[in-house]
Amino acid sequence: MRAFFQRHLDSSTRLGEVLFGVIMAMGITGAVRFGLAEANNRELLIAVLGCNIAWGIVDGVMFVMLALFERSRKTRIVNGVLNSPNDEAALDVIHRELGDRLNRLTTPAERGQIYGWVLDLARRSAREQPRIQGEDILGGIAVGLLVLVATLPVAAPFLLFVNATTAVRMSNTIALMMLFGIGWRWGRIVGTNPLYIGAVVTGLGLMLVLITIVLGG
Q1: 137-152 burial by CB neighbour count: b if 16+ within 10 A, else e?
Q2: In the chain, where are the structural domains located?
Q3: Average pLDDT over residues 178-192
Q4: Considering the entire predicted model, what is its pTM?
Q5: Which of 8, 26, 49, 155 is most buried per CB count within 10 Å?
């Protein structure tokens, strides 16, 4: 399963989905911790798993739709270039599609060079209609499964402990450890101090959970 996730999702997407899954689960158990709901192991287990299964389905569908959107952007560039009467009009098409991403990262001269490369590639490409591909669907499935897998350690205490209060405490402890681990891994990937990023992600996660609880999420 790990190879499946790595093949269809990049590192930032994997970490982001695990983070969101843990935060969603902590929002439910946190409500019990703060006395906003009555502790019941069975109901908590169903709530945590049900909420994150629903989140995984929604996020998986959004992954597929975003993939289709990005493919549509490429199609618009190719078709726009092929339909343009001259180079100036073709470059304007490319700028409308890519300028928002490149303006902050490149100089005008660098953007002109990139636009020229894109223009050459687009003219050598064939017209096509954007379609959802099998890779997109597999990526969406990977997203949904990853959210569910990330939830299992947080939900496990509700099966292992009879006392609901103990189960909630263990669940929150596991979730905090997972938040720190996500931050640690993120820090290693981006080349920053992993201890610092781990502490920051844990703090942000707790803040987001508190906001979720206060707003009734």
Answers
A1: eebbbbbbbbbbbbbe
A2: 2-67+131-210, 71-123
A3: 87
A4: 0.74
A5: 26
